[in-house]
Amino acid sequence: MAMSIGHAIRSAVLGMPTLVTGGVPKVRAGDARLSYANWDVPESLSVSSDAFNEGQPIPAQYSSGGRNISPPLKWSGAPADARSLVLIVEDPDAPTPNPFVHWLVYNIPANLNLLDEATPPGQTAQGSMPFSQGKHSMLQNGYTGAAPPKGDTPHHYHFQLYAVDRMLDLPPGAGRSALIKAMDGHVLAKGRTIGTFERKEG
User: What gap in Å lies between CA 4 and CA 150, rounded to an integer?
Assistant: First the structure.
């Protein structure tokens, strides 16, 4: 879904101030603006984490206020004609115009089936398997953990995996918009797992 000017203004006035003040925002990005909504393809990828169960809380060590390390992820079901995989981690409950981006990883080899815990921001390979990391919403490469407004209801973190029919012509450090544009027309399948996190007031 394209971001409307009206939604952007409402987010700036009614949503984003809660990032500083805390509380429950009156405007959120919304599930319809997740990258997952861009491609109507088979949901044949199975994605999970040993750190949290589907729909359950993400341990605090993976949050921005904890150790701020990425959780371990594993997956299966990539189609035979996939050439690479893309991981996009987003929070659609964020009081921002678009979902808050927590992690972008792309050009993951199609035969790689996991990412280790605590993948460093500058890491460009796992073993002999190269990949690239992009910029999250704080404009730095790599992973940044959950940091919802204090006192807000639990946010949902979507770990979205895509099988792509080519290696993407993108350098390390690409942003969400450039990544989605490069993927468009090349996504073969998708899958996701969702974890939650909230910060208590005080």
Answer: 27
C-alpha span between 147 and 197 (Å, rounded): 8
Element (H, E) at 193: strand 187-197
CA–CA gap between residue 115 and residue 106 (Å, rounded): 12
97 backbone dihedrals φ, ψ, rounded to 5°? -55, -45
Q: How far is CA 28 from CA 7, 9, 67, 189, in A?
A: 9, 12, 26, 27
Please say whether the structural domain 5-197 has been given the CATH code 3.90.280.10. yes
Q: For residues 69 and 124, what is the distance between their CA atoms, to the nearest angstrom?
A: 16
State the pTM of this model: 0.92
Q: What pLDDT is attached to residue 14?
A: 47
Contacts of residue 123, Cβ cutoff 8 Å, sequence gap at least 6: 133, 142
Q: How far apart are CA 87 and CA 159, in angstroms?
A: 7
At 127-156, the pLDDT tens digits run: 899 999 999 999 999 999 999 999 999 999
